[in-house]
Design goal:
Rossmann fold, Dihydrodipicolinate Reductase, domain 2, six-stranded mixed β-sheet, globular
Length: 336
């Protein structure tokens, strides 16, 4: 199975490591993954026979200085147009415009190539169009890693609750804000907690989308489109971040309670109500146990009622695992 990778940041790097480490296991289930093209922000390296992945990681670590096959200036779109593959893995950074990921995914779908992505931006901008295009061309578009790394979001409902109706979802979907709120609960200021999060690797130096609730809102849009079948956009989500959360934290301390940035979707008769905002929750609430950079979701089904799932989030390797699992599903032709 020929894999083309676009984006070699933290998640992309971890994915290459995982494919290399799990080569023997993957072959044991009938899957021989050959990474034949990798594009980063400055160029592309390709080999129709597949790479020695350890060597690729070494070359990337020294900025491709002695890699003869690296072509500076050859963009991901250029590579998609000329490299034959079975699956495009799109891991460029998420943006409000969806680009460049949206153009990369559309190009692959037009070429009737399967796509796996952890990039939220394209799905937020044009979920309906991308899904329709994939279906029209008879290929898969998988995106499990877009919402909560390796936490099963879409696969869980597709495999276990096909005969049920999903009425609502509530979740902690942003690792950075969960970490920051935990630090503020033990007395650090917002600024100190954010600095701690950046040093600890939970936050990027540009953390606005996280603390302002935008990242969580994007994830709600994807969930609403994928699980509720509604064509919603980012503007449909009511969003409040955590920049001014100190009064709520003080009130929570008096009640021996916790504060979490909660994402909610409630299905009303005529529309979905979607919100992201910090909330005081009781110490006995399952969400109160979700600490540090961990994430969780609570599904409310018509028949099965409430299902709660959570996962410890350590870093990009777990997001990369969710991407690899989607690749495996395509290669093995499994649903979940």
């Amino acid at each position: 199975m020929r894999v083309q990778l676009v984006g070699l940041g933290h998640v992309g790097n971890s994915l290459v490591q995982l494919i290399d480490e799990k080569e023997e296991f993957l072959k044991s289930i009938g899957l021989d993954l050959q990474v034949v093209s990798i594009s980063d922000s400055k160029g592309t390296v390709s080999d129709e026979n597949g790479f020695n992945l350890k060597e690729i990681l070494r070359c990337k670590s020294i900025q491709w200085k002695d890699c003869a096959k690296y072509e500076k200036g050859v963009s991901a779109l250029d590579a998609i147009g000329r490299v034959k593959c079975d699956v495009l893995v799109e891991l460029t950074p998420s943006t409000l415009s969806g680009e460049p990921g949206l153009a990369n995914i559309n190009a692959a779908l037009r070429m009737k190539e399967n796509v796996v992505t952890a990039n939220k931006g394209p799905l937020v901008v044009d979920f309906e169009g991308l899904v329709r295009r994939a279906k029209k061309n008879g290929v898969k578009l998988l995106y499990e890693a877009t919402v909560a790394a390796h936490l099963p979001v879409f696969c869980l409902t597709e495999s276990c609750f096909k005969a049920d109706r999903l009425d609502g979802i509530m979740g902690i979907l942003n690792a950075t804000t969960n970490y920051v709120l935990g630090e503020m609960e033990i007395g650090r200021s917002f600024e100190q907690a954010v600095d701690d999060a950046v040093r600890a690797g939970w936050a990027e130096s540009n953390y606005s989308d996280d603390v302002d609730g935008v990242d969580s809102a994007r994830k709600l849009v994807i969930i609403a489109n994928a699980l509720f079948g509604e064509a919603v956009k980012l503007k449909d989500v009511k969003v409040e971040g955590i920049r001014h959360v100190e009064p709520l934290l003080r009130a929570a301390r008096e009640e021996n309670a916790r504060v979490k940035l909660l994402c909610k979707i409630i299905r009303n008769e005529t529309k979905l109500e979607m919100t992201v905002s910090p909330k005081v929750i009781a110490a006995s609430d399952p969400f109160a146990t979700v600490n540090q950079g961990n994430m969780a979701l609570q599904y409310t089904f018509r028949t099965s009622h409430e299902i709660f799932v959570s996962a410890n989030f350590i870093g990009p390797r777990q997001t990369a695992y969710a991407v690899l699992n989607d690749i495996v599903k395509i290669g093995c032709k499994t649903v979940c």
